[in-house]
Automatic annotation (TrEMBL):
SMART domains: IG, IGc2. The keyword Metal-binding does not apply. InterPro entries: Ig-like_dom, Ig-like_dom_sf, Ig-like_fold, Ig_I-set, Ig_sub, Ig_sub2. It comes from the Eukaryota. SUPFAM superfamilies: Immunoglobulin. GO terms for biological process: axon guidance; dendrite self-avoidance; homophilic cell adhesion via plasma membrane adhesion molecules. The keyword Kinase does not apply. GO terms for cellular component: axon; plasma membrane. Keywords: Immunoglobulin domain. One of its GO terms (molecular function) is cell-cell adhesion mediator activity. This is Ig-like domain-containing protein. Residues 12-101, 118-210 form the Ig-like domain.
Length: 213
């Protein structure tokens, strides 16, 4: 197609892989794209156009610059919502489409697609507070959907208590996992392990606390 004269525009293109998230009873399919001017978005399931109404809503949100987020939201997703979806973006400079496959697992609860298995990118940090009484273990993990976290000491699962306090802070796909041990004693020394699991897989990190001397 010919470009309009004297205009500085961009045909739509997708800047990252589409993602699928489930929040409570909502399923969100999200595509991030660049286009100038703003694109028209149409969604299809197979060859049928998906129109808003009932359990389905569709949105296009401008982000910074010429970046847009196109979202198809399905309420209370069910088995029959599974299939191949396509997001088609068009403006006067061209057209682009992205495919998303929604496949439900047997239990239908968790839409499994575009997940990231938990990975620990950096070595865990051990921080002793200035009073010398408490120890904090801190690990950074990337995962999507949100992982389930289990801490171990040696081979046994470490139970949380008023003295052993695990916390998880989430920021998008990044999680900061902390384990605080208050008023630690020599008995708290040894091998620790943290395991993060989600639908896409599992990752773990090992920590040695050496309290000798």
């Amino acid at each position: 197609s010919k470009k309009p004269q004297g205009q500085d525009g961009k045909a739509p293109h997708y800047t990252q892989k589409p993602s699928i998230k489930q929040q409570q009873n909502l399923l969100l399919m999200t595509c991030v794209l660049e286009a100038k001017p703003a694109p028209q978005i149409r969604w299809f399931k197979g060859t049928t156009e998906v129109t808003p109404g009932g359990r389905i809503s569709i949105s296009l949100k401008p982000e910074s610059g010429d970046v847009y987020t196109a979202v198809l939201q399905i309420q209370t997703p069910a088995a029959e919502d599974g299939g191949i979806y396509k997001c088609v973006a068009t403006n006067e400079f061209g057209e682009s489409s992205a495919n998303i496959t929604l496949n439900f697992q047997a239990d239908l609860k968790q839409a499994k697609a575009g997940g990231v298995a938990p990975t620990f990118k950096e070595k865990p940090k051990i921080i002793q507070d200035p009073s010398g009484k408490n120890i904090n273990i801190e690990c950074h993990c990337t995962a999507s959907p949100k992982p389930t976290i289990t801490w171990y000491k040696g081979a046994s699962v470490l139970a949380a208590s008023s003295r052993v306090v695990p916390t998880v802070t989430e920021n998008g796909n990044e999680c900061v996992l902390k384990l605080e041990i208050l008023n630690f004693t020599k008995e708290d020394g040894g091998q620790y392990k943290v395991t993060a699991k989600n639908d896409a897989g599992e990752g773990n990190a090992n920590i040695t606390i050496n309290l000798e001397g």
